[in-house]
Amino acid sequence: MSTSQNKSATLPKNRFAAKRLDSIPPYLFAEIDKKRLAAIEKGVDIINLGIGDPDQPTPAHIVDAMHKAIDDPSTHNYPPYAGTPEFRQAAVKWWSKRFKLPEFNADTECLGTIGMKEAIHNMFLATVDDGDYALIPSPGYPVYKTSTILCGGTPHLMPLLEKNNFLPDLDAIPEEVAKKAKVLWLNYPNNPTGAFATKEFFEKVIAFGKKYNVLICHDNAYSENAFDGSEPISIFSVEGARDIAIEFFSLSKGYNMTGWRIGFAVGNQEAIKALATVKTNIDSGVFKAIQKAAVKALSGEQSHLEGLRKLYKERAQAAEEGLRSLGWPIKQACRGTLYVWQPIPPKYKSSIEFAADMLDKAGIVVPPGVGYGEYGEGYFRIALSASKERIAEAIKRMKEHGLTYS
């Protein structure tokens, strides 16, 4: 073998990748999608209960506003980094009306974002230095952990346990960790568990943040996807939260705008300024035509929400009733989000094993709970982004292939 061949044989798989990427697992949904596409290529009729991507169209009045905005030449140039004044004003007015709280200052306490994922990652860049701790929920949205690692921080997992109603136990956080923590991330209504937070819990969180000077970041992506009388609350319903907290909202799930990539953050002025500093150096904002459409979404009629909530409730009930028929012990019915979170059958050693059987045997895509963190092991998630008919078909296939609880 030649010298050049010897050298190439010892090269790492990707010699151009940063070492930090060695700690980053493949993104959960990207990996699931690879397996889904491979099965489709084999001719399998796949029922996708994986990613929470609404299957309903964006409301017509929002689409119409977008059409008009595209024809307006004034939308064709660079947008303001922080979001147009019109969009930020619409955002704070919507937020205030929605949660029945005083308005934030649209100029200093609000920032437009490119959806939620970008906003979350950039918030980590704005707050976490090498060696800092980030307090993150497990199970939780995978970006919380990966962004901590990409920023050189250390993720400290806060277990979300069923016995605690999937709320983290703040008292279990070691004192030495709390003192080194820069941020604490929460997400209620919760992905993936569907849990809701109470005002009493948020009061404890704000007190914790003030005690240790930790920024509280609340990912409020699912506030518009609640039903059965459940009423999501803002972190700012707690007195003193403006001193220590920032809250994020996306138009993705309530307005069926996942592909539009638009949202906003409101909250503590210093936190908003830090996030804005990162964003002005990384991106150039959201296309102004999309911002105009988002203004229409936030300030226009909201009648579609009632139908959307009814739809997700019906789908959740179909999934839960189907699982009950297969022996699942449904302890807590879904009250919101786009997800049903349930334990895997006891006969399986891992959630990955169960998810693999669901795909290989029945052609059903579900994410394994461990994909959301180590404390998600033993569970799986169903996304309510498929019709009741497809959910019923999934239950039928599970029964046919012995994918029952017992």
Describe the protein:
By secondary structure, the protein is an alpha/beta fold. The chain contains 13 helices and eleven strands. The protein has helices spanning 3-9, 28-41, 60-70, 85-99, 117-127, 143-150, 175-180, 199-212, 269-282, 288-299, 304-325, 351-362, 388-400, and strands at residues 47-48, 110-113, 133-138, 154-159, 181-186, 215-219, 245-250, 263-267, 339-343, 364-365, 379-383. It has a seven-stranded mixed beta sheet with strand order 2-8-7-6-5-3-4, sandwiched between helices. Helix 3 (60-70) packs antiparallel against helix 10. The longest helix is centred in the C-terminal third of the chain and has 22 residues, at 304-325. The chain is globular. The model is unreliable at 1-12 (pLDDT under 50).
What descriptors fit this protein?
globular; alpha/beta; two-stranded parallel ribbon; disordered N terminus; 406 residues
Question: Gist?
Answer:
The chain has 406 residues and is α/β, with parallel strands linked by helices. It has helices spanning 3-9, 28-41, 60-70, 85-99, 117-127, 143-150, 175-180, 199-212, 269-282, 288-299, 304-325, 351-362, 388-400, and strands at 47-48, 110-113, 133-138, 154-159, 181-186, 215-219, 245-250, 263-267, 339-343, 364-365, 379-383.
Number of helices: 13
Fraction of residues in helix: 25-40%
What overall geometry do the principal axes of the alpha carbons give?
globular
Beta content: 5-15%
Order of helices and strands: HHEHHEHEHEHEHEEEHHHEHEEH
For the terminal residues, how far apart are their CA atoms? 57 Å
What's the overall average pLDDT, rounded?
Answer: 94
Number of strands: 11
Q: Order of strands across the biggest sheet?
A: 2-8-7-6-5-3-4
Give the quaternary arrangement of the chains. Answer: single chain
- Low-confidence stretches are 1-12
- Estimated structural class: alpha/beta
- How is the biggest beta sheet arranged? 7 strands, mixed
Using only C-alpha atoms, the radius of gyration works out to: 22 Å
